[in-house]
Design brief:
By secondary structure, the protein is mostly beta strands. It contains 2 helices and 13 strands.
Length: about 230
């Protein structure tokens, strides 16, 4: 009898907790993550997003992406000393994407289980940083110049901070459409993956490798692993 009463009490407590969990509705969330896309290397950059409830199952968000854009012809080589460099690269290109958009929830996950699925559409202005690509040449660091530097005399690459300080600016716009899959097991925490298509257009051609075809328009398939909190 005592065992039966104890089981009933435990079931009652669990039922009450589950009901509270089901009633949990969040109005805002903040996420951050790591981006990989078809215009990047192993890691494309970082992504941040702040979302707020706009209507039932519809959230508005403000996003910020910090990305490193690579040319498809980039190929890494190694000097006799073992340091790496990219032959023919004249500029590195970094883009700061700001966006505003909507996220529509189609399938909500059950409390502490399941997958939440939503569609995401957004866009906004972009700021590009065209930084000179520094190489190590004759025991010094200089911006690569295809007219005067030969392959055999390059000893490596470097001077990232200095290159950023010498960047030219490019202005553009961006847009994206994607799907978000959330797997977070806890109601106040967020963990998931977003994948989709992104496009970005600048007001001028971005010269990364001068001997190859360059463009002002960048398209990519992306995937972002994200984490965050909500309340």
């Amino acid at each position: 009898m005592k065992t039966t009463v104890a089981i009933l009490l435990l079931m009652s407590c669990f039922s009450s907790y589950a009901q509270l969990d089901e009633d949990f509705e969040y109005v805002s969330e903040f996420t951050w993550g790591v981006n990989k896309n078809t215009n990047s290397g192993l890691i494309g950059g970082a992504a941040f997003k702040l979302g707020r409830l706009l209507d039932e199952n519809v959230y508005q968000f403000f996003g910020l992406d910090l990305l490193n854009v690579k040319h498809p012809k980039e190929e890494k080589y190694f000097s006799p000393s073992g340091t790496s460099f990219i032959w023919g690269k004249q500029h590195s290109f970094y883009t700061i994407r700001m966006s505003y958009g909507r996220e529509h929830l189609w399938f909500k996950k059950a409390p502490q289980q399941g997958v939440q699925i939503s569609t995401i559409f957004g866009g906004g202005p972009s700021l590009g940083l065209i930084a000179p690509y520094y190489i190590q040449h004759n025991n010094g660091y200089v911006p690569f110049d295809p007219r005067i530097h030969s392959f055999d005399n390059i000893q490596g690459s470097g001077k990232f901070i200095r290159a950023i300080g010498e960047s030219d600016l490019a202005f553009g716009v961006n847009a994206k459409a994607g799907l978000s899959f959330e797997f977070g097991p806890f109601k106040n925490n967020v963990a998931g993956v977003e994948t989709g298509f992104a496009t970005e257009l600048f007001t001028k051609e971005i010269i990364i490798i001068p001997t190859a075809k360059n463009t002002a328009w960048f398209n990519s398939i992306y995937i972002t692993l994200y984490w965050g909190t909500r309340r």
